[in-house]
Task: structure prediction
Amino acid sequence: MDETQAAGAIREYCSENGLDSGDRLPPERTLVDLLKMSRTQLRRGLARLEAERVITRTVGRGTFLAQPTIGAEDMSPQDVLVVRSLLEPAIVKLAVATATQTDLSIIQEILEASERAASPDEWERLDAALHTAIVKATHNSLIVDLYDRITKARSASVWGELKRKSYSPKNRAAYEHHHQTIVQALTRRDHAAAEAGVLEHLRFVSRAMLGSDLT
Result:
C-alpha cells in the first residue's frame, strides 16, 4: 500500500464514520488495527493528508480534521502571487538545507500523484499539496503558519475560477516541468537551481492566470 492508497483509506474511514471539521481521529495504534495497515503506511498516509491540509497534527493533542478555510476571499490573486514570489524562493532555499529523506520522499510521491491526476480539480489540489510539502520541509513552524494564509487564498473562489480558466494540457505540462525541476534541485541540494525554478514557475503562473508578469 503506497501513501496515496493509505491517505485514501484514512479519508474513507473519516467519511464513513461521520467525522467532521475539528473532530479528532483515533490514535495511530487504533487506526493501524482498524485500517489493516502498518504504522509506516499509516504515517505516510497521514503525512500526505497533512500536506494537503486535510488534517492537522499537534504533539500532545492528536490528529484532527482541518477546519474549513476562512478569510481567503479578501486576497486578490495578484497579491497572492507577489507574496509567493517574495517568500517561496527563500523557503525553497531553506528546504534544500533542512529537508530530510522522508520529506523528499513525500514531496516526490505528491509530485508523481499530481502527474497522474485525472481532473483539473484533483491536479490543483495536489499542486497546492506539493508546495505545502516543500514548505513543511523547512521544519519551521512560523513559516508553515505564514504559508497557510497562501494555501487559504488558493482555496478562494476567485483563485479557483482563474486557475480553471487558465487550465490547459499545455499549461499543465509546463507546470509539471517546473515542479520536476524544483524537486530535482531539492533532491540534489542545489539551492540556486531550486530558487531559480520557483521564480520561473511563479512568473509562468502569473502570465497564465493574470496575463502579465510579476511586478
